[in-house]
Design brief:
The chain has 151 residues and is mostly helical. It has two domains: 76 residues, 434 Repressor (Amino-terminal Domain), CATH 1.10.260; 30 residues. The chain contains seven helices and two strands. α1 packs parallel to α4.
Length: 151
């Protein structure tokens, strides 16, 4: 893991270089970069962590200003490179998805636990259908009673 202060310093240096290349002050960069002055000063001071999106916006502005990639320090390029961490995130998510599916299958066979700690088994499909039919029959009887009493 890289030193965070080095990343903030690198971000500051790159924004200063961009401002110099464009012939503007650093406080005029938010319009070029696409984020607020508060965010820019927060990134430069270390008050806010520098997001991948902010690095990408800085890279785009540098490219538009003609600042070549070779002029960018290697450690800031690595810090702003989302492709490696993103592939790791995707691999982790795929592994977690498989693990969650397995856990769901395992839980399906288990029963529910009441607040008192008693285990309740999950009803089978046949039991659920039977309960639905019983409820439907009761509702039909009740609606029949209402229609007789209403007449």
């Amino acid at each position: 893991m890289q030193d965070k202060s080095a990343l903030f310093s690198a971000f500051s240096a790159r924004t200063e270089a961009l401002a110099a290349k464009l012939g503007v002050r650093v406080i005029d960069l938010p319009g070029v970069l696409g984020f607020s002055l508060d965010m820019l000063t927060g990134y430069r001071s270390g008050r806010y962590p520098i997001s991948i999106k902010a690095w990408r916006k800085l890279e785009s502005a540098e490219a538009a200003a003609g600042i070549a990639k070779k002029d960018v320090a290697v450690h800031t390029e690595i810090a702003s490179d989302a492709s490696a961490p993103m592939s790791e995130v995707i691999a982790r998510l795929r592994a977690q998805a498989a693990q969650l599916i397995k856990m769901a299958d395992d839980l399906e066979g288990m029963g529910r636990i009441t607040a008192g700690g008693d285990a309740l088994t999950m009803p089978t499909e046949a039991e659920r259908m039977s309960a639905r039919a019983e409820v439907a029959a009761r509702l039909a009887r009740q609606s029949g009673k209402r229609s007789i009493s209403a007449a």
